[in-house]
Amino acid sequence: MTTDIARPHLPLIGRPPIGRRNLLRSAAGACGALALGGLPTLSHAASGPTSETVLRIADYKAADGLVLEASGNARSGYRSQFAEFASGNLIVEAINAGSIDVGSSSEIPPAFGIAAGARLSIVAVIKDDVNWQVVLVPPGSPIRSIADLKGKRVGYVRATTTQYYLARMLGEAGLRFTDIQAISLTPSEGQAAFDQGALDAWAIYGYSVPFAVRKGARVLITSNGYLSGNYLYLASPDALGDPGKSAAIGDYLLRLRRAFAWRAANLERWAQVHSAAIGVPVETDLEILRKTSRQRDLAPITDADIASAQAVADTFHQLGVLPRRIDIAPAFDRRFADVLSRPLS
């Protein structure tokens, strides 16, 4: 599960300062290249990747690179360089800087990047769970509905999915964001405040949820029906313009589809591998994997996906967080629709 913090003040317009650009390039090169060999050349490219092609891939801790390895889908006919990033806004920045070819984020960082002039393309959509993005209330809380949050202290993570679904929930209940005492906190700050009774409710995601529930917290509402569950695979326009790299990206997306299908069919094995990599109990990891709204998958872009990303951008503009309204549709590139639609062998 990936939930990103977008920071609109980051220098995304044009080329980043030299120091940041060098830092991002160093990060991309820090992970050793994986010499790989295998899948056939994709028909949409004029020429396929060769052993000299290098695909620079942004990843999160114990995420796509790990599932490729665990599922036996790590091999290809080109070199892959994985670099670990902490958030999607940094991946957007690295793609804009030309130091990363492909990486993923929630629907939020691309909107901020585009508003700031970043060059990026959206080439695929990850379909993922929304059951573990929720609003929690403390043990014994009298709060029974979103409407009951009026005037209450509600923690959230600014410019992330939590702010988005919280705003939508409040709007559905006839409330505005200003009708609550909205407190922007990092997940660790929110955990401490919630545990100490300083919050009446907490909009949060991921492993914080089962840990809080085991301490007696109650899920007031999940984000199911409020979040799309979409995460966007982004690519550098320059990489897409290179026939070898473009074919490598298509191959990478196909291998990810196979890896995600393996993960869905092998939840216990994946939980063992993943929990060890991130340092959580395997039982907690398995609980999250089994109680998802859907298993992680990679899909071609649809009109509904574009509309969802636009709705997210519009909501953040209305909240005053995104500096201007953007049209996100031109950033979507459907060239890999065949790769993402074909039956998996």
Topology diagram in text:
Blueprint: H1 18-30, E1 34-35, E2 54-59, H2 64-71, E3 79-84, H3 88-97, E4 102-106, H4 108-115, E5 121-127, E6 133-137, E7 153-156, H5 161-172, E8 181-184, H6 187-195, E9 201-205, H7 208-214, E10 218-222, E11 230-235, H8 237-240, H9 243-265, H10 267-278, H11 282-290, E12 297-299, H12 303-318, H13 337-341
Helix pairs in contact: 2-9, 3-4, 10-11
What features would you highlight for this structure?
alpha/beta; 12 strands; 2 domains; 13 helices; D-Maltodextrin-Binding Protein, domain 2; 4-stranded antiparallel β-sheet; 345 residues
Protein model, in words:
This protein has 345 residues and is an alpha/beta fold. The protein folds into two domains: 18-129 and 230-341, Periplasmic binding protein-like II (D-Maltodextrin-Binding Protein, domain 2); 133-222, 3-Layer(aba) Sandwich (D-Maltodextrin-Binding Protein, domain 2). Helices cover 39% and strands 17% of the residues. The chain is built from 13 helices and twelve strands. The strands form three sheets. Strands 8-7-9-6-10 form a five-stranded mixed sheet, sandwiched between helices. Strands 4-11-5-12 form a four-stranded antiparallel sheet, sandwiched between helices. A three-stranded mixed sheet has the order 1-3-2. Helix 2 (64-71) links the parallel strand 2 (54-59) and strand 3. Helix 2 (64-71) crosses helix 9 (243-265), helix 3 crosses helix 4 (108-115) and helix 10 packs across helix 11. The longest helix is centred in the last third of the chain and has 23 residues, at 243-265. It is globular, with a radius of gyration of 20 Å.
